[in-house]
Amino acid sequence: MKRLVLILCLLAAPLWAVEPGEMLDDPVLEDRARTISQGLRCPVCQNESIDESNATLAKELRIVLRERIVAGDTDAQAVDFIVSRYGEFVLLRPDTRGANLILWFAAPALLLVALGIGWTAIRRRPAADEGLSDAEKAELEKILRP
Amino acid sequence: MLIELGHFALILAFGVASVQMIVPLVGAHRGNAGWMAVAEPAATVQFLLTGFAFAVLTWAFVTSDFSLQLVFLNSHTDKPMIYKITGVWGNHEGSMLLWMVILTLFGAFAAWFGDGLPTRLRARVLAVQASIAVAFFAFVIFTSNPFLRLEVPPLNGRDLNPLLQDPGLAFHPPFLYLGYVGLSMAFSFAVAALIEGRVDAAWGRWVRPWTLAAWMFLTVGIALGSWWAYYELGWGGFWFWDPVENASFMPWLIATALLHSAIVVEKREALKSWTILLAILAFGFSLLGAFIVRSGVLTSVHAFANDPERGMLILIILAVFLGGALTLFAFRAHAMESKGVFSTVSRESALILNNILLAVSSFVVFIGTIWPLVAELLFDRTLSVGPPFFDAAFTPFMVALAIVLPLGSILAWKRGTFGRAAKPLLGWLMLAVALAGLAYAVQSGNSALGPIGVALGVWVVGGAIADLWVRSGREGFADRVRRMSRLPRADWGKATAHIGIGVTIFGIAAMLAWQKEDIRVANVGDRWDVAQFSFQLDDVGQEQGPNYQTTLAEISVWRGTREVTMLEPEKRFYPVANMPTTEAAIANGILRDLYVVIGDPQEGGGWAVRVYVKPFANWIWGGAILMALGGVFSLSDRRLRVGAAAAKQTMPKGAPAE
């Protein structure tokens, strides 16, 4: 039974994201690898970074990434290496080229517009006026002296 | 037979909803009291029929009736009873039926407790609510019927997704749906008011409790989902900016804005058309959420039942309701004239700023969520938008909101001055800055995240306390405390919810900034240090659960020579679903969580082990609980309770006096 369980566990996809065996001995390089891999999407997964994913491809990409870093690539070069093979789909942080400018700047632009509209709407409305209109005065009179 | 009765009840409820959609609306238009009165019994009957259908489906799950296709696909005789019951909504069809039960329940509540509403408005609200029900009844009956039978009943079922066999996730959907669907009430009130062409303070008072209730449930639902992700997915993340999470977060942000603008309508009779628009948008985002989760257009970790045809139908429902309501809004919005006037520096202006920040931050989440779709359709680019985008684009709005919150919430209505508002806050501002400085000096590394979180947390919490303090008068300390305890519960609700926001902001920043991680291969007997703790792998064994096998490790945690706790992380394997899950072992604490995960056996002997020390993790969900609690306080405010009761006595006139 015990052996069966062990086999079943090994057959099932590894449960884990980064495994100890993959990690680099140099903590500085490993730190860089972790940071980069948190920004790269696992191409076969549903919205997970290769750092979190349990898929085999994610594991391979983690190892490739570490090989590039050990080989002396800068962070940007290592990322480009993977993007050149899997496309910009793997970038969890979309770049600011072309149409992506809309993605990045739509909200700040909307904020400015909203603040502008809000400001003019507040300024244009009559300032708080303490007095009552004649109709209101009449009504107040009615309420106070029934 | 019972199953067929349930099926029949569902179809009957569809018919009743259709009647309730048309008759009261026509009655309200013609001023026919009899036709308008149809709405109330119809709403009750609709709820009873749907509730019966749901009870039948639950019964089928409890008795493991595998002649029902849905039970066969999602249940198993070995499954613990609690998960047999929660399995009812652990799938697309059953969860839609739960959605219907809640939708009709809200409609019935409006019928039962809506005595104070003007008759005409009530008839219209119930009719609009029924029209939403009609759309979804049609959706359930024609595309997602839970009552389909199998010709040859199999001996056993295929089991529920093991990830869903968990208390956190089992009760996550009902809360979430109570929130999503609760927003339909605000929508119905908004559309009814547009048809009526009238919004006044009484309308604001009627909408606010519904929105508040929906918002509370949504808060709890989102917190449960995030808590589940934290302990179940195995690396202690609590928010992934996943499309499905965003789907619940967008309506929450808009509902938060709506809550605040409805206050302005109620107290000051201003911002009327904006509030109506928010009510429409909030439910629109709920429907968008349903579309995202159920269509599979956007890939996600936890979407279920992906089906383009169903997605299409939800999209049509979304288009009809949102489009219809917005068209109505365009024609009628100008009729909602504001009465209340206010100057530039006032609580009203502060709440407008609150609304702008919340609406724009919700837009950030929206555009980030749908951008991959837009980019692919229009620009032919296959790309991803992940956490790094949202962290960068969303956080600034929340920081801005936290900065203005204390000042805005203490400003006077109508006409305020910054000087007077800032005075009671100065002490807290200095404390916030001082503690942030202290945090910066004590922490290792020089990340700004932790100190900023400390400063914002202290500032927001302090602001909420100062707000209460200011309202307690000018007498001696004892007198002020006495007066404070007698403040209306709505004031306590406001303070509690704002304290909750501060606590959550601090928790998120502190955990992200100061957590420690350790990944290693450990042999039985090994001992290693993480942060101020030592961890020792004592034993690893195999055990058998009710419907799974498990690898169970024992890890003792030490601080110096004192044993802090014993943790037992598990790695389970569910044979029926052929799926492994991690069960992290967590020692919860107020100041830190110890989080341990056991991994695979290694080739050279030993086990992979992951250890995290996560400071202040529980504050994240503690803050969410405080927010929901603030909602409870507000809902129990005398104004709402007495208002409703008094309205019963003065029946025909409706809206109670202030």
* Estimated radius of gyration of chain A: 30 Å
Number of domains of chain A: 2
Average pLDDT metric of chain B: 87
| Average pLDDT level of chain A | 80
For the record, what CATH class of the largest domain in chain A applies? Mainly Alpha
Q: How helical, in percent, are the residues of chain B? A: 55-70%
Based on the structure, what is the oligomeric state of the protein chains?
A: heterodimer
Helix content of chain A: 55-70%
**What is the string of helix and strand elements of chain A?**
HHHHHH
Radius of gyration of chain B: 27 Å
Distance between the termini of chain A: 90 Å
CATH architecture of the largest domain in chain A, by name, is Orthogonal Bundle
Q: Which fold name is given in CATH as the topology of the largest domain in chain A? A: Helicase, Ruva Protein, domain 3
CATH superfamily of the largest domain in chain A: Cytochrome C biogenesis protein
Gross morphology of chain B: globular
List unreliable stretches of 5+ residues of chain B. Answer: 300-305, 644-658
Largest sheet of chain B: 6 strands, antiparallel
- Give start-end ranges of low-pLDDT stretches of chain A: 1-15
Structural class of chain B: alpha+beta
